[in-house]
Write a structure and sequence with these properties.
Blueprint (H helix, E strand, L loop, with lengths): L8 E9 L28 E2 L1 H14 L4 H8 L13 E3 L2 E9 L5 E6 H12 L16 E3 L12 E4 L2 E7 L2 H11 L7 H8 E4 L1 H10 L2 E8 L6 E11 L5 E8 L11 H11 L3 E3 L10 E8 L5
Parallel strand pairs: 5-9, 6-8
Antiparallel strand pairs: 1-12, 1-14, 2-4, 3-12, 4-5, 4-12, 6-9, 7-8, 10-11, 13-14
């Protein structure tokens, strides 16, 4: 590694679920046998950074994008794990906006001040411009764009079975997120997101991300009797299509001997070789976990 190697560089990774997503946490003792992974202190859903890094590595491996740079970016194979660490680090993906069904306008994306404050704090580590934060609405209140198709009358939203009074606009928050969270080739989602983003009280938001997930019954049938096999009925939890999450990607200079690349080269390697749609989480063979991704550097967040 050169003595003049550049310092660490970073980017914000946005993930937009195109199909239901199951970042599994293993089996559980509750009603749902296979829940999604959640933060212990908030109970908000997350995708482990180890899963994201593994998906990135596999995508680069499938593309056959240069073994030396692959090992420099993500570390060597397990048998040689003691040789050096990879240059790329990926944080857990955290929730940014969560889809909730609406009485009008089909569905909304909901977020809250706690989520946005944390996004600003996290994104600033990557030099990403912060979103404007209004005062948090009170419980039962909401911020929503005035031209939103969600509004039942001039001041009312109905999300799931709950009614919210609109007390202000969320446009100042939605606009910067809209510019950066979605792929340039997606010509419909950005405008829909801008008009459907709703800011709720932290407690109202937390209720939805805890209780408005998809829970699906999975079964295995005995071929001869056409009845459920012993132990083959279970319930699995999914994050719904349209969920928006984010993570941070950090790059250091290569630690691999004879591959003297700086941090920017390592990050560019990921940007150039990871496809714009990745499959993340469980149930890959049933089409779950397809996510559109966008990797934005700090200068792009201006």
């Amino acid at each position: 590694m050169s003595e003049n190697a550049s310092p660490q560089t970073s980017a914000v990774l946005f993930l937009h679920a195109q199909t239901s997503l199951h970042p599994g946490s293993g089996t559980a003792l509750g009603t749902v046998d296979l829940p999604v992974q959640r933060e212990r202190h908030t109970q908000w859903p997350l995708i482990p950074g180890t899963s994201l890094k593994g998906v990135f590595r596999d995508a680069c491996l499938r593309k056959k994008a240069g073994a030396d740079l692959l090992f420099a970016a993500f570390g060597p194979d397990t048998a040689e794990a003691d040789k050096h660490a990879g240059a790329i680090s990926v944080t857990d993906a955290r929730i940014l906006a969560y889809p909730v069904r609406s009485l009008r306008g089909v569905f909304s994306w909901v977020t809250c001040a706690a989520v946005l404050n944390r996004f600003n704090r996290d994104a600033s580590l990557a030099g990403f411009a912060c979103v404007e934060l209004p005062a948090s609405p009170a419980k039962g209140k909401a911020l929503c764009p005035p031209d939103s198709p969600l509004i039942v009358d001039t001041t009312v939203l109905v999300l799931e079975e709950f009614q919210f009074e609109v007390t202000g606009s969320s446009a100042a928050i939605a606009d910067p997120l809209t510019r950066h969270a979605f792929r340039a080739t997606d010509t419909t989602t950005p405008d829909s997101f801008r008009r459907r983003l709703v800011v709720l009280h932290d407690d109202d938001f937390t209720h939805f991300v805890r209780h408005a997930t998809e829970v699906v019954a999975r079964i295995g049938l005995d071929a001869s009797t056409k009845t459920v096999k012993q132990g083959a009925l279970f319930y699995q939890e999914f994050l719904p299509t349209e969920t928006v999450m984010y993570a941070l990607v950090f790059a250091n200079a290569s630690r691999r001997e004879n591959t003297p690349c700086d941090a920017s080269t390592m990050l560019d390697y990921v940007r150039q070789n990871v496809p714009t749609v990745l499959q993340i989480g469980g149930d890959e063979t049933t089409g779950k976990g397809l996510c559109a991704i966008r990797l934005c550097c700090g200068k792009e967040g201006a």
